[in-house]
From TrEMBL:
Annotated active site: Y182
GO molecular function, one term: quinone binding
EC number: 1.1.1.304
SUPFAM superfamilies per UniProt: NAD(P)-binding Rossmann-fold domains
List of residues binding NAD(+): Q40, G41, I42, D61, D89, V90, N116, Y182, K186
NAD found in the keyword field: yes
InterPro entries registered for this protein in UniProt: 23BDH, NAD(P)-bd_dom_sf, Sc_DH/Rdtase_CS, SDR_fam
Species of provenance: Rhodocollybia butyracea
Listed name of the protein: diacetyl reductase [(S)-acetoin forming]
Reactions that this protein is recorded to catalyse: (S)-acetoin + NAD(+) = diacetyl + NADH + H(+)
PANTHER family to which the protein is assigned, alphabetical: 3-OXOACYL-(ACYL-CARRIER-PROTEIN) REDUCTASE, SHORT-CHAIN DEHYDROGENASES/REDUCTASES FAMILY MEMBER
Pfam families: adh_short
Length: 286
């Protein structure tokens, strides 16, 4: 009899709708996501992939990138999803609060936030100035923290859980030469992701991060050029040398990263939290 009751409870639990289960993400109800820094590069690829997955998207970037943001919005709308542009500086908490408020007002309850906005700077650690530290940590760490805080408060207010997805990097596992402060900011994001995962679990909020490797993007163009100024190698050589260390033998494209985020934003990741997942072609093994 006890075994029968146990099987009955299991049957009831497994047949319950996804949205009634702990940490569940509905596959049928309308969904919305905020993607910061999504006017170009990885952020754009993430926004488009989530739109294809059925999300309505709040496309965020700085106002200076308004033309790119509007193009992304138009592309998402062409896929049959809703999209709104919101210009906000993620290093300013009031602007992040206004961004999430605008998303909820325009797209409905928030389900996912992707704290993607980030910058890099090439330099020796011994040459780093206070202004360098402030700039990199403000965007790469404070921007992620503020996005996480504001989204989490919205999730708690809604009472149905949610998913926080942060931009880390493989340098959060193994720092790169000439990227010391950038590496430190991404290690901080990885640690924050773990801490918030523990803190927010009771509210049915999962917190994870994605860790790209060498992505063929504007950021890596900047890194390659900066490294060349320091070590004297011609443009493209540092990038080529780094790509040669990738096990799969090719650089990543933004869509490779977007696939990882798609998983983390989906119901398939409902039992995953506190993880920083690498999509690097085998540069760093965990």
């Amino acid at each position: 009899m006890a075994l029968l009751r146990s099987k009955l409870r299991l049957s009831i639990a497994s047949s319950a709708p996804l949205w009634q289960r702990g940490f569940a993400t509905s596959k049928t109800l309308s969904k919305s996501a905020v993607v910061t820094g999504s006017g170009q590069g990885i952020g754009k690829a993430i926004a488009l992939r989530l739109a294809r997955d059925g999300f309505d998207i709040c496309v965020n970037d700085l106002e200076v990138n308004s033309s790119m943001v509007n193009n992304v919005v138009a592309e998402i709308q062409s896929l049959g999803r809703k999209a709104i542009p919101v210009f906000a500086d993620v290093t300013r908490l009031p602007q992040v609060e206004a961004m999430v408020e605008a998303s909820v007002e325009g797209l409905g309850p928030l389900d996912v936030i992707v704290a993607n906005a980030g910058i890099a700077q090439v330099q020796w650690g011994m040459d780093a100035q206070e202004s360098d530290l402030q700039r990199l940590f403000e965007v790469n760490f404070y921007g992620v923290l503020y996005s996480d805080q504001v989204a989490a408060r919205q999730f708690i207010k809604q009472g149905s859980g949610g998913k926080i997805i942060n931009a880390a990097s493989i340098v959060s596992f193994r720092p790169f030469l000439m990227l010391p402060i950038y590496s430190a900011t991404k290690a901080a994001v990885r640690s924050l992701t773990q801490s918030l995962a523990m803190e927010l679990a009771k509210d049915k909020i999962t917190v994870n991060a994605y860790a790209p490797g060498v992505v063929d993007s504007h950021m890596w163009d900047t890194i390659d050029e900066g490294m060349g100024h320091i070590n004297g190698r011609p443009k493209g050589q540092n990038f080529k040398d780094t790509v040669n260390s990738i096990t799969l033998g090719r650089t990543s494209v933004p869509e490779d990263v977007a696939k990882m985020v798609s998983f983390l934003a989906s119901a398939d990741s409902d039992y995953v939290t506190g993880q920083t997942m690498m999509a690097d072609g085998g540069m760093v093994f965990s």
